[in-house]
UniProtKB/TrEMBL annotation, chains A, B:
The entry's keywords: Carboxypeptidase, Endoplasmic reticulum, Glycoprotein, Golgi apparatus, Hydrolase, Lysosome, Metal-binding, Metalloprotease, Protease, Secreted, Signal, Zinc, Zymogen
Domain Peptidase M28: 242-428
Protein name: Carboxypeptidase Q
Organism of derivation: Altericroceibacterium indicum
Superkingdom as given in the UniProt entry: Bacteria
Amino acid sequence: AQTPSVSAAEQDKLDAVADQALQSDAYAWDFVEGLTTEVGPRQSGTAAEQRARDWAKKWLTAQGFANVREEPFMMKTWVRGVEKAEVVSPFPQPLTLVALGNSAATPADGITAQVVGFDSYAALEAAPAGSLKGKIAFISHHMKRTQDGSGYGFAGPVRWTGPGLAASKGAVAAVIRSVGTDNHRTPHTGGTSFPDGVAPIPAAALSNPDADNLARMLERSDDVKLHLVLTPRNLGETKSGNVTAEIVGRDPSLPPVLLACHLDSWDLGTGAIDDGAGCAIIAAAAQHVAEAGQPLRTIRVLFAGAEETGVWGGKAYAKAHAKEPIAVGLESDFGADRIWQIRTNFAAGNEALHKALIQAVERFGVEGSTAIADNGEDLTIIHDQKTGHVDLAQDGTHYFDLHHTPDDTLDKIDPVQLRQNVAVWTQVVGLLSNEAGPIKPD
Amino acid sequence: AQTPSVSAAEQDKLDAVADQALQSDAYAWDFVEGLTTEVGPRQSGTAAEQRARDWAKKWLTAQGFANVREEPFMMKTWVRGVEKAEVVSPFPQPLTLVALGNSAATPADGITAQVVGFDSYAALEAAPAGSLKGKIAFISHHMKRTQDGSGYGFAGPVRWTGPGLAASKGAVAAVIRSVGTDNHRTPHTGGTSFPDGVAPIPAAALSNPDADNLARMLERSDDVKLHLVLTPRNLGETKSGNVTAEIVGRDPSLPPVLLACHLDSWDLGTGAIDDGAGCAIIAAAAQHVAEAGQPLRTIRVLFAGAEETGVWGGKAYAKAHAKEPIAVGLESDFGADRIWQIRTNFAAGNEALHKALIQAVERFGVEGSTAIADNGEDLTIIHDQKTGHVDLAQDGTHYFDLHHTPDDTLDKIDPVQLRQNVAVWTQVVGLLSNEAGPIKPD
Ligand SMILES: [Zn+2]
Ligand SMILES: [Zn+2]
Ligand SMILES: [Zn+2]
Ligand SMILES: [Zn+2]
């Protein structure tokens, strides 16, 4: 059996820098504090996202990263306009909502239509063809709070395809209950998509308290009328891009270790937890590994662009770099709360390394798992190359309180938990980048 | 010494209905659920406040209250318009804010000016005369979380008079850190006022995360420029009104017990905790007392109008009813969390009743106090008549997370704590309304 090639002396140094990161890492906070303050919201394909790339390149260069590069690509860009909703009758009052990405626009003076409520995606599916003609569909599917984020897989389809399904049954617009676990008046945006042959309709998410209120109205009346104004626009093709940078290894001929996050954010918040924190964590970890001594393999960080609107950056990177083998990929895109579990996809082929990683992070409160790491969104290249993958699973209990809302701001990051992330990443990336043998043998 | 006149049998009945209210009161929830769903926001002087009065009269009548009346009065009404803020340089990004009541308007296309930051009211006071000419003042005074709400007295002046003070030193606009203890992107509105001879300027509150962000920008740059659009309007004199109703006592010649709340709310939320809950609690308690048997004194509920914008309703009531003596007044206007303390203003003159009240509510976890009850906002008449007052102090630990924000919605009310309020009110109002002797002897 293979044994990890990291020497006892190297391991000691890595342990020490990881321990130090836990106590006093300042890189990650500096990054996310700076990005959210000096750039703030940075929606894909917009000038704000370009400012974020410029900011990130400057930061990476100042920290001493090598080969800091921007790799542009083109994408289709949708931007928010006016968004207003008002119950016209029988209980006139405004409701708070935000348009979903790819929503169609109403006329400037809006539309008024009767609301038909569905308490689940399944109930909408069961609605007869044509039954929503002229109506606004309201899909009020509750999301469950979970540590591993599995509630998103359960409730997510309401946002991803609910409006398209409503449109296919004749609805003139769709409003969904926010896919989120909080009860604040801060609705959750995110992309939606319409099936081929179905014309997009105006689609928006109500905050949970507003969805509760609309549901109570529908319990009292079967003739609730809603006035809706949504004026988003499609800008056509605009420029986005990835930012990459490296800690060059002692043997650059070996396939590198790829660390990914996404630099774009939705427009409502300042993108602190989604995904400023992820970029902060990976960049901080790369620096701490370098502080322990030049790693054997190159560590490449990928700040992907335009993840939120269709993983444009991850796909562009995979295409542009298809011929360059990657040893192993890791992504951070689930907030800034502590890492509770480590998974790999090479326990079968490289049990020794799998076990060494688990053992190395145990002191940070991270448990091992026999579950196979699944690809992060921006690791398209790892999927294409069927290469190594490590998942450092973060606690997602509170993530969907904030995800894609105006509330995704710096104050939501706990510096102590952020440093735990950096420490775990430092340890794991340190071991992987100093591993001489294949990470995931074929 | 006086002794309370309530018989043991009456006390037993009151104890029983209060215990029952703790377990299963449904009136209070029915009221606040209905009001927030069927009316929602109900700003003073607007058509929405009239809908609230109509709704309340219907509800009170349906519950069997006697003498359900509306007492109109005229008031000056200010309404919100467009509100937008954007940092122009050096870190372009939008900020979330809401106009404060009585704010002046900017031109429709806004104003752009340099921001001058003050980290306290005292720092603004220390700014030299004329030093803010052409600038936007930013007052970033943190509010402390307290159980008794004393943090509001400390931070409140920033909102009440901060913009006026900035205007007097030449500022073209003022933005304040929200007077609130949360960290959500839901700013806290509320009224502000300008001194005589000082022309109103545009005045708004940033959410706490936005105030944090602006403060971080000011740490980095002494030339932060903000673009501000606020287009509120003064509507002139419009109609508001109070709603009153009674449980008629066995001896209507005795001065009544007056229970007050306010029916208007700020426009951003649905006014669940401020002050739908207060009206719900007092109306529910009055009904439970009646269930124990017709009280000796009349219990009058006053749903005051237009409290938020200057206690118009409380003052109108005091003026219209100046000649009618009130025995004792109580107000509920501090949310829906549990009552933790009881205070009266008659411990000196009527110690027996003071002690009987304390003893009666001890089983609900309420403690007595030697502090003298201070008047509730809508109890102007109690102040004028120097008559009896009882304060049932609620736990305000979380109140200023929600106060005057879009987040003041039904889901924030804990039904268990709401019922504890109703139980304590039932007990106290039951004893007061069955007391034959003077409550607060001269
Ligand atoms: Zn993300
Ligand atoms: Zn996202
Ligand atoms: Zn109030
Ligand atoms: Zn208030």
